[in-house]
Amino acid sequence: MTPPTPRLFLIRHGETEWSLNGRHTGTSDIPLTVRGEEQIKSKAHILVGEGKPIDPQNLCVALISPRQRAHRTFHLLFEHLSKVPDHIIDESVREWDYGKYEGLFKHEILAIDPKWDIWRDGCPGGESAQEMRDRVDSVIAKVREYHRQYFEEGKGTRDVLIIAHGHFNRVLISRWINFELALGTRFNVEPGGVSVLSYNHNSLDEPALNALNLYADLK
Description:
Layout (H helix, E strand, L loop, with lengths): L6 E6 L4 H5 L12 H14 L11 E6 L3 H11 L9 E2 L16 H7 L5 H4 L7 H25 L5 E6 L1 H11 L17 E6 L7 E8 L5
Helix pairs in contact: 2-3, 6-7
């Protein structure tokens, strides 16, 4: 019998002060706001648990960004369970390194470089668009190897979980479905929102986007 199609649950951390006001937040270690914590707590019982969309029994691996806003989001999602799943703090799923533009509003960046487009130009002193693409592609290759081992060899379990960031998630969605990273500008990835990436026709050769911004607070 063919096993269930593997999935990647891709979650953006909850709201922070900087995500609320629009500052570029890469390496800065900004905590969740009180509302950001409530965003995650309010969906945890719906989203996570036995028989729920994210069932710990189905989790092969959880990759969590080192920034506290992502790590805290992970723990808030699972704290109602008797045991928090094993997870890996992974630098490869960190946010885009904004370099000299860290902490700036977009209008402040455009005052420096009126033609700036992160999807084309990247960030001076941080990561270029090509570097971001390469990093995200390496994460996708890692996830697909977990999926392949489960689907073709019966090793491990069905699902992978990543808790990361706005730009990172938008790039990953674009690259997962075999588009250039600049397609990410067409996706809104809300704080606390859940995306589901999987495959069409039960074929690992047909990567697909199943859902975007599930359980997001869209107020």
